[in-house]
Design goal:
Layout lengths: L5 H10 L7 H8 L3 H12 L3 H18 L4 H7 L5 H12 L9 H7 L1 E2 L2 E2 L6 H8 L5 H10 L13 H12 L4 H7 L4 H4 L10 H9 L9 H16 L6 H22 L2 H23 L1
Antiparallel strand pairs: 1-2
Helix pairs in contact: 2-3, 8-10, 10-11, 10-14, 11-13, 11-14, 14-15, 14-16, 15-16
Length: about 290
């Protein structure tokens, strides 16, 4: 039996998010029985079918509120039985009422992704300043020296990538040694002759794991990998279209299922949203 790629699930759900969606509808579309489709989706995506659908609808609801749509209209459009049910679902997912999104301060915060401000480009020193108290400045300096002279595909200093990975891990409330491991997230891959001997023991253990196969990684190492991919997806527009497609598919089929397995809902939400945006953008470019 043919196994459908995760991106095909995501694409279909996204294109029909305002329509009546059920396990039966999705199973019929992809040619499976209800039970088989439910098992396959959960196995591949690490989340149940309808849980995924409703989480996506809630994320879409936020965008619609920021665009000025009425909450009652959004609830109807996205197939909630009533505004009351929508309020309850929203509060359960995000911890606050949807009406808060309408307020100026909350709206401004919603423009922020997980651990970064989308409205402006930050400097290295600003990110380092934000990391103070969470990481050893000595390790920041060592990371800066490790990646010295290297540039990202965006043209900025390469150190901005591991600094942002560390910041994402701070927002994920990761352990201090996991945050510090983020400073060296791809040192083995990018730096010839990199040696972790000068890193603290707990940090070194995680960094030494990172080149290994996924099934050999601890949860701490997996968390660093996911944080690194999240920052890569934030800057994916600087890659070639071919690389964008490759990275997006890899994120959907590998990183997102692992992310759901180990938790951290806000990281999952942003990674999922960025993957969908990239997937749809890549398809648009291909059709042109």
């Amino acid at each position: 039996m043919i196994v459908i790629n995760n991106e095909e699930y995501i694409r279909f759900i996204e294109e029909h998010i305002n329509e009546e969606l059920s396990v039966e509808v999705l199973a019929n579309h992809f040619g499976y029985s209800r039970a088989h489709f439910s098992r396959m989706f959960k196995s591949q995506m690490n989340i149940s079918v309808m849980n995924y659908v409703w989480k996506r609808r809630l994320a879409v609801a936020i965008d619609k509120m920021l665009d000025g749509e009425k909450i009652s209209d959004i609830a109807i459009e996205l197939k909630w039985e009533s505004s009351s049910n929508f309020y309850k679902s929203f509060k359960k997912e995000y911890g606050y009422k949807p009406s808060i999104v309408k307020m100026v301060v909350a709206a401004k915060n919603t423009l922020k992704d997980f651990g970064r401000d989308k409205m402006r480009k930050e400097t290295k020193n600003e990110v380092i300043e934000e990391l103070k108290g969470y990481v050893s400045i000595g390790l920041v300096e060592l990371a800066d020296l490790t990646y010295k002279g290297m540039k990202r595909y965006s043209g900025e200093e390469y150190i901005m990538h591991p600094l942002n990975v560390a910041r994402i891990l701070v927002y994920a409330e990761a352990s201090p040694w996991v945050v510090e491991a983020g400073l060296f997230c791809d040192a083995y891959r990018k730096v010839d002759g990199f040696d972790s001997k000068n890193l603290p023991k707990k940090v070194r253990k995680i960094v030494n794991e990172l080149p290994n196969d996924w099934n050999q990684l601890s949860e701490d190492a997996l968390l660093v990998k996911i944080a690194e991919r999240l920052h890569n997806m934030r800057t994916i527009e600087f890659m070639s279209k071919e690389r964008q497609i490759e990275k997006t598919r890899e994120t959907i089929n590998l990183f997102l299922p692992v992310a759901r397995k180990i938790g951290h809902p806000r990281m999952i939400e942003e990674l999922n949203r960025l993957s969908i945006e990239s997937l749809l953008n890549c398809e648009t470019c291909i059709r042109k």
